[in-house]
From TrEMBL:
InterPro entries: F-box-like_dom_sf, F-box_dom. This is F-box domain-containing protein. PANTHER family: F-BOX DOMAIN-CONTAINING PROTEIN, OS03G0653100 PROTEIN-RELATED. Residues 3-49 form the F-box domain. It comes from the Eukaryota.
Length: 465
């Protein structure tokens, strides 16, 4: 006869034990049983440091490559791996695309799931219904991009996906009959997926304020750089719907507003940073402007405030990058497909070399605010600067340069830092397979140790099955 199970620990004793857990383990402990979750929540053991309040690195999508790479910022805390193939059911040699499509407060959106790399939990996504997305309103185009919304301070176990229409380059024939119609429409119906219900639904949003104009004056611009640009800030989703406009979706009161970007033309990047929503723009290759969106100057008013305007070409460093070398940040390189399936020229040995294992974690244990400050250097009269995003908690914008390096530019002191290499070894050595070495999307990543996603499987459980 089996011995009787030991009596449960008193709440005080259990709370004392749980307080000593590392952030990842404490977050996972909420999933063990209801009693443990109750103790964690009632005793407020979920500390503020479990929220997404630090930068963990940058996820990078490269042109022609369907495996997202991860430039990891070393930390003295728990390291996070950018390897995501543990979310894929089935045989390891039959993996689908592992490609990050969006990020919000520590969660990543992939084609098949939403995953939290910090806790290694994920939620599989159901197939999108055939009738989605819904036909767009007059003066807008169908857009199949999904934007992820996750706010752990409001609901740490739930997320939503939004499909927003975009502004077309020219009016469709069906819209020409409505040329005098105001734009944007007074009511916007969006397709929204809720993890709480597991269903897609139509959600109605009313326009705030007056129309921006009529249809003929609102078209004629397309997104010429990163197609997927958006961010979530204090209950609202901000999405670039063209090179001219940002759409602000307020989730608390089901309203929306279209905001004209501060500049038109050139390269730009919309994201959130230290005080809210920012837009970085590049003109004449190296003239960098940083704009802040003052969204609190009135109920139906917004104002872009210029925070920085400088030609950064004179301070760009001129370093020898003939050899691919790491910086203070480490590029975790991932190539999931075996050589027998794709790119036969890449040997199995090389594939194994570029995949980062968990043992690499000790390699990027690091903590410094100075990273690698660079001195200005003489450069040839050419530059190729690409905006990669904002540091969420500092006055820093991330760039890449012609030498395939990732740089951090602090606009408060006009200093540049070299963070590390941009492209993995196999991507450079076999660039004839990829035609152009370009960044197609980038997502600054903020680890979050909160939340419980429905899918309880993890990589360790898969190995045990």
């Amino acid at each position: 006869m089996d011995p009787a199970p030991p009596p449960p620990l008193p709440d005080d004793a259990l709370a004392s034990v749980l307080r000593g857990l590392a952030p990842r383990d404490l977050a996972v402990s909420r999933c063990v049983c209801k009693a443990w979750r109750r103790v964690v929540d009632d005793r407020r053991l979920l500390r503020a440091d479990l929220l997404p309040r630090s930068l963990g690195g940058i996820f990078l999508n490269l042109h022609g490559l369907w495996f997202t790479q991860f430039l990891a910022r070393p930390t003295t805390g728990a390291a996070v791996s950018g390897r995501l193939d543990y979310t894929v059911p089935g045989e390891p040699d039959r993996l689908p695309i592992i490609y990050v499509r969006d990020h919000c407060n520590g969660l990543l959106l992939l084609k098949h799931c939403v995953v939290n790399p910090a806790t290694r939990q994920w939620a599989l996504l159901p197939p999108r219904p055939d009738d989605l997305p819904q036909p767009p309103p007059p003066g807008m185009d169908v857009c199949t991009d999904e934007y992820l919304v996750f706010d752990p301070t409001l609901s740490p176990d739930d997320f939503e996906l939004f499909i927003l229409p975009s502004v077309p380059h020219k009016l469709k024939q069906s819209d020409e009959e409505c040329e005098e119609s105001e734009w944007p429409p007074s009511t916007l119906i969006l397709s929204v997926f809720s993890s709480k219900t597991g269903l897609w639904e139509e959600r109605e949003f009313g326009r705030e304020g007056a129309a921006a104009g009529t249809l003929p004056g609102m078209v004629g611009s397309v997104r010429s750089f990163f197609d997927h640009q958006g961010c979530y800030w204090r209950g609202a989703l901000y999405v670039c719907c063209s090179d001219c406009f940002v759409m602000r979706i307020s989730l608390s009161n089901s309203t929306y507003r279209v905001i004209r970007l501060p500049t038109e033309g050139g390269e730009f990047y919309l994201g959130k940073s230290i005080k809210g929503v920012y837009c970085a723009s590049l003109f004449q290759e190296s003239q960098l402007q940083i704009w802040f969106l003052n969204d609190e100057c009135g109920h139906d008013q917004t104002e872009w405030v210029l925070k920085h305007d400088r030609d950064i070409f004179p301070i760009l460093p001129n370093l020898n990058y003939d050899e691919q070398c790491d910086g203070p940040w480490i590029l975790q390189e991932f190539y999931y497909w075996g050589p027998e399936q794709h790119y036969d020229e890449i040997s199995e040995l090389e594939v194994n070399e570029v995949i980062v294992e968990d043992k690499m974690e000790e390699k990027f244990e690091w903590d410094s605010d100075n990273d690698n400050v660079l001195e200005p250097g003489s450069r040839s009269n050419d530059s190729c600067i690409v905006l990669l995003g904002f540091h969420p908690y500092k006055k820093v914008v991330f760039l890449s340069d012609k030498f395939d390096r990732v740089l951090a530019y602090n606009w408060s002191i006009s200093k540049l830092q070299d963070l590390g290499k941009l492209f993995p070894k196999f991507y450079i050595e076999h660039d004839y397979q990829f035609f152009h070495r370009l960044v197609s999307a980038s997502f600054p990543y903020t680890p979050c140790w909160l939340g419980e996603l429905p899918e309880k499987l993890n990589s360790e459980a898969r190995l045990q099955d």
